[in-house]
Amino acid sequence: QDVKSLTFPLPPLAEQQKIAKILSTWDEAIATTEQLLANSEQQKKALMQQLLTGKKRLPGFQGEWEEVALGRLFSERKETGIAGLSLLSVTSGQGVIKRDDVGRKDTSSADKSRYLRVCPGDIAYNTMRMWQGVSALSGLEGIVSPAYTVLKPESTVDSRFAAHLFKLPRMVHRFYRHSQGLVSDTWNLKYKQFARIKVLVPGVKEQMAIADVLCKEDETISCLEEQLGLLAGEKKALMQQLLTGKRRVKVDEAERATA
């Protein structure tokens, strides 16, 4: 009964059909882009499983990978009391971004004296959520909450390679096994425990080559995500215009006759 009492502007049937056809074209473009994005994401996952474990080698690289402790690849950056740097946030999906870009209320402490410096090329991870894979490579300089651990790469590691490695399910499971705490709410992976974890890695040149391949996949995924966002925005704008009568479409006699 509530629906029956509603009124809204309705064009002739032929115009309805043409509007629906226009919007369906955008739906098809969105669906195609979504499929391309899903394919790219799946391809990247497959490449990560092959390249980051040595199952597949890139042309020109040979020799055994070396098992090393993460403490040989990264030291802990514990620089505090740095004034004038932007507050950063570590996210699972967007990487290290400015806190103002997160879109949520800032709950950080007013006293930033204990906040940790992060430099481009560092990897920062949430000490209490590393077992859930919350880590990211930073392209920015700034400070993060003491709830994070900041890793400074040594000359023996390409931090881009390591950032991808840390996202592998098998690595996230290792972080889970080495985290300490009585219950999940208190599990944490401090640098001392992190540094003991051993991983199999190639030489730096091969790490860089692998990172280049995976970063290109990331660029493709980012472009498709941006394209998808634009298409969705354009369709929404068209709906606002075409479904309210603010913008009309022309219907010829042939279309009227088949309506």
Structural class: alpha+beta
Strand content: 5-15%
Order of helices and strands: HEHEEEEEEEEHHHEHH
If strands are numbered along the chain, what order do they take across the biggest sheet?
A: 2-9-6-7
> How does the overall form come out from the CA principal axes?
elongated
Number of strands: 10
Q: In angstroms, what is the radius of gyration?
A: 25 Å
Quote the distance from N terminus to C terminus. Answer: 29 Å
Residue share in helix: 40-55%
Q: Name the poorly predicted regions.
A: none
The biggest beta sheet is recorded as: 4 strands, antiparallel
Mean pLDDT: 92
Query: With helices defined by DSSP (H or I, 4 residues minimum), what is the helix count?
Result: 7
Structure description:
With 259 residues, this protein is an alpha+beta fold. The protein is built from 7 helices and 10 strands. A hairpin with an 8-residue loop joins β6 (123-126) and β7 (135-137). α1 packs antiparallel against α6 and α3 (159-165) packs across α6. It is elongated. The mean pLDDT is 92.
Topology:
Layout: H1 13-51, E1 66-69, H2 70-73, E2 74-76, E3 88-91, E4 95-98, E5 116-118, E6 123-126, E7 135-137, E8 142-144, E9 148-153, H3 159-165, H4 169-178, H5 191-194, E10 198-201, H6 204-242, H7 253-258
Antiparallel strand pairs: 1-10, 2-9, 3-4, 5-8, 6-7, 6-9
Helix pairs in contact: 1-6, 3-6
Please sum up the structure shown.
This protein has about 260 residues and is of the alpha+beta class. It is built from seven helices and ten strands.
